[in-house]
Amino acid sequence: MCADETSCDWEKVTLCAFAESSANVGLHMQFLDCMDSNKLPLFYSPVIPKGCAGNVNLTWSGINKCFNGPEGGRLLLAAQKEIASRMGTGSFTLPTVLVNNQPVCAGTQCDYATVAASLGRAGFESSEARTDEEPTIAYYFSSK
Known about the structure:
Number of strands: 3
Structural class: mainly alpha
Mean pLDDT: 81
Shape: globular
Strand content: 5-15%
């Protein structure tokens, strides 16, 4: 169900951080970059996400409340449904990043610089994309 299959805690804390930062794509990316830059242990520990939250000026108490409460579970379930509807129930490379519903990168090719560069590519300027809105970024880091 999740990337490491032992639990979905890493995914849940990331979703809670996203919720804490509202729709601020820049903060989402900074938090992800911090998390991805660390060697995450197999079993969840709040040390790394708490540090990443501090690095990007997110409130850890809000993230932790979400993580330990029902909101974290709701966010995780919604994300899993989203993944199944967008990617199907088969396997795919983790992570997979889409910007404005267009694949940008997968696996080890995904980093902050790659995703950030894709935001300015002409391929994402279309009649469907409104320039007054932030782009949509989907970061699929768990499967099924």
